Amino acid sequence: MLILLLLIRLSYSLLMAVPKKKISKHDSRVRRSAWMTKQSRRLLNKLNLHACTQCGETKQGHVACTACGYYNGRQVIEVASPASKGTVVASESV
According to the model, what pLDDT value does residue 82 have? Predict the structure, then answer.
């Protein structure tokens, strides 16, 4: 009977995760703050800026360049003129 009680008590301690001590409010908040800072840095890095292969202007990755209209080695949008960079006149459906 005593062995059975010990086995039951041992099985409960193996099945359940129990913290050894209470985590203070400060430690919880520091951990949460670090996690939020990490998430905000990830969001800032998602902009994914690269240099255009045609004109060298900075553009967002996987997006047509607003300065020259090229994407993936071919012109997909027409740009008004080099003097007015960034203004798109018309777009083609490719």
Answer: 57
Quickly list DSSP for the chain: -HHHHHHHHHHHHHHS---SSPPPHHHHHHHHHHHHHHHHHHHHHTT-EEE-TTT--EEETTS--TTT-EETTEE-EEES-SSSTT-EEEE---
Of the chain, the end-to-end C-alpha distance in Å amounts to 79
Report the C-alpha gap between 19 and 10 in whole angstroms.
Answer: 16
Q: Name the burial class of residue 42, with classes exposed (0-12), middle (13-18) and buried (19+) by CB atoms within 10 angstroms of its CB.
A: exposed
For residue 40, the one-letter residue type is: S
Give the predicted TM-score (pTM) of the model: 0.40
Residues 6+ away with beta carbon under 8 Å from 62 = 48
Kindly list the averaged pLDDT for each block of 10 residues, start to end, along the chain of length 94.
Answer: 74 73 93 83 75 90 90 90 56 53
